[in-house]
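Researcher: Please predict.
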Amino acid sequence: MASGVFRRRTRGDGRRLSDGQRISDPDASHARWVDRSALLLAAGFGIAVATIPSHNSFVEYLDSVAQHPAGTFGSFFSTAERIRIALLAESYSWLFFRLGRFRGDVYVGCFHTWCLVPRLPASATTASVTTFSRTVCQKTGGAVQAFVLLCCAVHLLWYVFPRTMQHMTACSLRALQKGRLFVLLTANISHYSLLHLIHNMLQIMHLGPTIQAVLGCEDLLCLMVLSALGSSLASVLWNGVLGERPHVGSVGASGVAMSLVAANAA
């Protein structure tokens, strides 16, 4: 999770009368509703993590939906199909769900259930994402190198435009409420402290190449983007919702670095 933290003077704590009595904000009921929603979201997230299906369940699912012809050679073809599934089926755990691949099809597993992801027709957005990932992987030397260079370049901007960088990259609940949803990603490439930048970049450069060699550049890039979103949302949930500090923002690639640590351990 991003560890760089910024605090502002909070104006939403109500106001005091001349006798010192505090009047609460009119949106206090909304804040309590947000707290309940956060608890329900955390409970659902915990259940999803606890019920991630295993790779063996993916193999069993593929075997159950496979065609098993009857007749003299039915058992032979069924055995051959089971062997093919056991050898070719792949699945990867992504925090609270599992992605599976077999014969070009993609499957999603969550809450002990598997389902086939329908193939969507190619669109301009899909083509743009594919072009972006290929550009990063082929022209910048890989996802790790591109990410490290981007973080270093963004850090230099802090010395020139500190107030703008805090406004555009610090991820907080108040920033999301004002419509700056992009901070969910920009916070992960922004480091206010030079030591914070060096620490995260050393971790990413140490683990990234090994994971890229196993997963491939495009899958590693997908992992880094998802971990960036996840760490930013966790920071907002902890500071802004549960901690009732909507102005507290966070920056840094610690969430991305920790995802690489977890992927390396797996």
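Model: The chain has eleven helices and eight strands.
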